[in-house]
């Protein structure tokens, strides 16, 4: 341990003796890290760690025949279905589920597209909305409990209250992005926005962009973030047609018919915090749904997360591919270090002849690789920022930007160090096996 | 000239690690560049998939009509529909407009919808029954529209014809107001998937969880009505009538030849004058402004950039490693020169060593790419293995390997035979 500073000094000197080779190793690793970072940020955006939520969260799944979606998006109906329609219920079943009065909290939601504008009615001057209709934005109808049940932090203000709902006061919570577009990101609570042409007072503003895979409604994953959050009851007043209703039988063209139909589009969550509440809710479901012969299942959060686990996607593939590129860069570095070891063979032999143990030579090489990897990791992480900016500007697959998180930075750094040090293991082992007699004999 | 492979074999046996790493580098290079090119081509094709529409003469009008306050739901819906119907009349009456159809989706749409599984009702026509390729059901995208769709989009009929207006109109005389679709027009892609022979579709009846028993009146050439990166973007069923009452409405307008800009200006002005309550957005129809185009070409550029970067770091690494190894073998080269080897022999020797590694790495790389392609097929819809792109990946790596070897090899060939003597 006390020899580490000594070995580090020697390793640093060694790096400076071959600046070209050292620079090559750094560039190779940094470029590979930068390429990997783009896929990694994407991967974390979709598959990253999920937030801590109340373990009492439950959802009632009512069997849905989703053959169409399995054929279209999975390519086969053979696999058991884990697709998002299973997380939704029809409006009439939602009314049954919501009427129990048992859960500590409950929340219903669906998404629609509504005209959102500033109070003067001016269209939003941003290129992020649909290329088809410049004024319609994603509007989510939720109960006020949504924000606490799903740990949605508000930067300013608060959600509407129960009193607001009872008094029928038009209140809205703005998404972070819309608040930037309409109010330059300033505190807009108390201001008025027009939704579907009607005035709504801003009661709060979310602190963060919505996640790509929002757990409160996985059927909307990948479709951009919600611009506004409105009280659930307002959906009837606004006659808001859901964004993605999944039809089980033909439905007429009218909003009333949709609400009465078996089309599933409402996601409903309950928070059952005690065993008594769970048992009571089970009894309630048996009485209300079981009596009608419906297949249903009450899933807790862990079970639910397992059920809607996101299947492998192009993001998984590109993460794998960029990992292979990273591994390839490790091979290049290994060959460079091996070549360097061969050229320095005589010098290493002299060290051995002077009494340096094999372990010392091995660790000196590893320290050398560690120094190079650290520089490459820092450079690769820095390059990842403009790379993400490039993606957000030129690809922009939806309006939720790629952002570097601390987790992403840590993973990029760790992966670069692992590849760099891993690629040095074999060359260091070869170098440490140098026999002193060979060098002395040649001398 | 007889090639002496003895020194080559000895070099490989003396440094198996370095040689194996070189082979693996080429293999990884071929695999990654090949996969990047194949996936990039998939995005590129999706991004530039033609809509099949006569775009230079088309205009897209999007409107948003809010629900009027203070009305009961039925009256509010009727008011929304009345506004939309009035808008269509305004647009159709413009002098530069030839036709205007109401549609619920276009290739430019970039928000989520679900497809539908269409089934053939009862016995299909004889031709369909005899066709082994006929499928009983197929995934389709539904586009609700009206009787002017064929004229507005310039649909080319393969079989059947648009139903007569009397068949598709409801009591109000406006097909879009119908309670249920009166007829279906299928694209060739969808008709082929359902019936094998597209002509066999006419006269059949379709059903699904979305629609009940709709007769197929015609089959048209493929047009892309859904975002091109989705599955089956050309498998569309145009349903005449029966669309949900929504705030959003779209019209595709065919302008008179050469009058598109005038039609855009006139429509925007006329719609703005007609009502200040609803939003109207009028623009030239241009599928290159769609999200599929931006995403497809953006990713094509990004993946291409990655491919170039991979090739460059492979070249840089190979160049540096080979330079080091050549420097280390200066004495050996000097001895060979002293024993009569020409400069050409030295260059050939190094090139051959790299070529063997490149060929072996390429074989491993192609096998690995094929294995990786099996993974790609599970996540990229209808992706094809492109042999030309694979050859391009191989050529890139081979050229890179030769360049990375040639520069140090030429330097090695200049080593004087006297170096051998000095080293002894």
Tell me about this structure.
The complex is a heterodimer of chains A (443) and B (424). Chain A has 443 residues and is an alpha+beta fold. In chain A, helix 1 packs across helix 14, helix 12 runs parallel beside helix 15 and helix 14 packs antiparallel against helix 15. Chain B is of the alpha+beta class and 424 residues long. Chain B has 13 helices and eleven strands. In chain B, a hairpin with a 6-residue loop joins strand 7 and strand 8. In chain B, helix 2 runs antiparallel to helix 9 and helix 9 packs parallel to helix 12. Chain B is elongated, with a radius of gyration of 32 Å. About 3% of the residues of chain B have low confidence.
How are helices and strands ordered from N to C of chain A? HHEHEHEEHEHEHEEEHHEHEHHHHHH
The two chains with the largest interface, and their residue counts, are: A-B, 90 and 87 residues
Average pLDDT, all residues of chain B: 85
- Number of DSSP-assigned strands of chain A: 11
Distance between the termini of chain B: 30 Å
Instruction: Assess the beta-strand content of chain B as a share of residues.
Output: 15-25%
What are the key terms here?
heterodimer, A: 443 residues, alpha+beta, B: 424 residues, 6-stranded mixed barrel, 4-stranded antiparallel beta sheet, 11 strands, 51% helix
Secondary structure blueprint with pairings:
The complex is a heterodimer of chains A (443) and B (424).
Chain A: H1 4-17, H2 19-47, E1 57-62, H3 67-74, E2 89-90, H4 91-98, E3 105-118, E4 136-142, H5 146-149, E5 154-157, H6 162-166, E6 171-174, H7 176-183, E7 192-195, E8 198-206, E9 228-231, H8 234-237, H9 255-260, E10 264-271, H10 275-288, E11 296-300, H11 301-307, H12 314-343, H13 345-353, H14 358-394, H15 406-432, H16 436-442
Chain B: H1 6-14, H2 16-47, E1 58-64, H3 73-92, E2 97-103, E3 116-120, H4 126-130, E4 137-145, H5 149-153, E5 157-160, H6 165-168, E6 183-187, H7 188-195, E7 205-207, E8 214-220, E9 236-240, E10 248-255, H8 260-274, E11 279-284, H9 291-328, H10 330-338, H11 343-379, H12 387-413, H13 418-423
Parallel strand pairs in B: 4-9, 6-8
Antiparallel strand pairs in B: 1-10, 1-11, 2-10, 3-4, 3-7, 5-8, 6-9, 7-8
Helix pairs in contact in B: 2-9, 2-11, 2-12, 9-12, 11-12
């Amino acid at each position: 341990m006390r020899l580490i500073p000594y070995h580090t000094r020697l390793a640093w000197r060694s790096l400076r003796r071959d600046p070209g080779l050292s620079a090559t190793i750094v560039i190779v690793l940094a470029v590979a890290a930068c390429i990997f970072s783009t896929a990694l940020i994407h991967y974390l955006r979709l598959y990253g760690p999920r937030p801590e939520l109340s373990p009492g969260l439950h959802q009632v799944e009512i069997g849905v025949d989703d053959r169409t979606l399995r054929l279209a998006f999975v390519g086969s109906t053979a696999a058991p279905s884990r697709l998002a329609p299973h997380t939704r219920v029809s409006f009439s079943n939602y009314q049954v589920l919501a009427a129990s009065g048992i859960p500590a909290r409950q929340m219903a939601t669906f998404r629609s597209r509504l005209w959102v504008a500033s109070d003067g009615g001016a269209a939003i001057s941003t290129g992020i909305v649909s290329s088809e209709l410049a004024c319609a934005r994603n509007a989510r109808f939720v109960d006020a409990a949504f924000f606490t049940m799903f740990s949605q932090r508000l930067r300013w203000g608060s959600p509407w209250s129960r009193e607001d709902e009872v008094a029928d006061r038009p209140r809205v919570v703005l998404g972070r992005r819309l608040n930037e577009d309409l109010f330059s990101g300033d505190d807009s609570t108390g201001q008025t926005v027009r939704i579907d042409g009607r005035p709504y007072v801003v009661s709060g503003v979310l602190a963060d962009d919505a996640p790509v895979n929002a757990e409160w409604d996985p059927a909307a994953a990948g479709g951009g973030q919600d611009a506004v959050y409105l009280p659930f009851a307002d959906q009837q007043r606004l006659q808001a047609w859901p964004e993605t209703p999944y039809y089980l039988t033909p439905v007429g063209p009218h909003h009333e018919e949709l609400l009465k139909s078996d089309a599933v589009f409402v996601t409903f969550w309950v928070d059952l915090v005690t065993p008594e509440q769970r048992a009571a809710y089970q009894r309630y479901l048996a009485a209300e749904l079981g009596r009608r012969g419906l297949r249903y299942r009450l899933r807790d959060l862990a079970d639910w997360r397992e059920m809607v686990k996101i299947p492998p996607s192009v993001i998984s593939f590109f993460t794998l591919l960029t990992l292979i590129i990273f591994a390839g860069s490790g091979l290049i570095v290994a060959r460079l270090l091996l070549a360097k070891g061969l050229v320095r063979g005589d010098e290493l032999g002299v060290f051995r002849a002077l009494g340096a143990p094999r372990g010392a030579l091995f660790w000196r090489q590893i320290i050398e690789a560690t120094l190079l990897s650290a520089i490459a990791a820092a450079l690769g992480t820095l390059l990842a920022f403009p790379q993400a900016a490039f993606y957000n500007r030129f690809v922009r697959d939806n309006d939720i930007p790629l952002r570097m998180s601390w987790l992403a930075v840590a993973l990029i750094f760790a992966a670069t160090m692992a590849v760099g040090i891993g690629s040095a293991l074999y060359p260091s082992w070869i170098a440490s096996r140098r026999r002193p007699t060979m060098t002395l004999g040649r001398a | 000239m007889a090639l002496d492979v003895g020194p080559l074999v000895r070099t490989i046996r003396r440094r198996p690690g370095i040689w194996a790493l070189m082979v693996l580098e080429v293999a990884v290079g071929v695999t990654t560049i090949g996969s990047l090119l194949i996936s990039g081509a998939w995005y590129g094709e999706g991004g530039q998939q033609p809509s099949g529409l006569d775009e230079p003469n088309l205009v897209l009008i999007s409107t948003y009509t809010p629900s009027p306050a203070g009305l009961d739901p039925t009256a509010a819906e009727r008011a929304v529909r009345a506004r939309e119907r009035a808008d269509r009349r305004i647009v159709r009456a413009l002098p530069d407009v030839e036709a205007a159809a109401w549609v619920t989706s276009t290739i430019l749409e970039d928000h989520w919808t679900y497809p539908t599984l269409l089934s053939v009702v009862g016995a299909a026509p004889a031709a369909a029954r005899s066709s082994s390729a006929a499928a009983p059901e197929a995934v389709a995208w539904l586009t609700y529209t009206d009787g002017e769709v064929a004229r507005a989009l310039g649909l080319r009929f393969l079989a059947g014809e648009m139903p007569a207006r009397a068949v598709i109109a409801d009591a109000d005389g406006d097909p879009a107001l119908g309670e249920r679709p009166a007829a279906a027009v299928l694209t060739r892609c969808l008709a082929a998937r359902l019936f094998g022979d597209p002509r066999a579709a006419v006269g059949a009846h379709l059903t699904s969880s979305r629609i009940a028993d709709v007769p197929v009146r015609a089959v048209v050439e493929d047009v892309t009505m859904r975002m091109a990166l989705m599955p089956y973007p050309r498998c569309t069923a145009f349903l005449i009538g029966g669309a949900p009452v929504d705030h959003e409405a779209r019209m595709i307008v065919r302008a008179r030849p050469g009058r598109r800009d005038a039609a855009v200006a006139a429509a925007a002005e006329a719609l703005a004058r007609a009502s200040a309550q609803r939003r109207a957005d009028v623009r030239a129809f241009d599928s290159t402004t769609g999200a599929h185009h931006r995403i497809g070409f953006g990713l094509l550029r990004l993946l291409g950039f990655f491919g170039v970067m991979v090739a460059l770091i492979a070249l840089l690494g190979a160049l540096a490693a080979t330079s080091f190894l050549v420097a280390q073998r200066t004495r050996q080269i000097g001895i060979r020169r002293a024993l009569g080897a020409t400069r050409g022999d030295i260059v050939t020797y190094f090139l051959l060593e790299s070529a063997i590694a490149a060929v072996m790495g390429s074989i491993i790389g192609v096998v690995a790419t094929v294995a990786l392609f099996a993974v790609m097929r599970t996540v990229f819809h209808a992706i094809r293995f492109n042999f030309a792109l694979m050859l391009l990946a191989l050529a890139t790596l081979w050229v890179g390997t030769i360049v990375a070897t040639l520069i140090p090899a030429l330097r090695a060939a200049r080593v004087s035979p006297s170096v051998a003597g000095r080293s002894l």
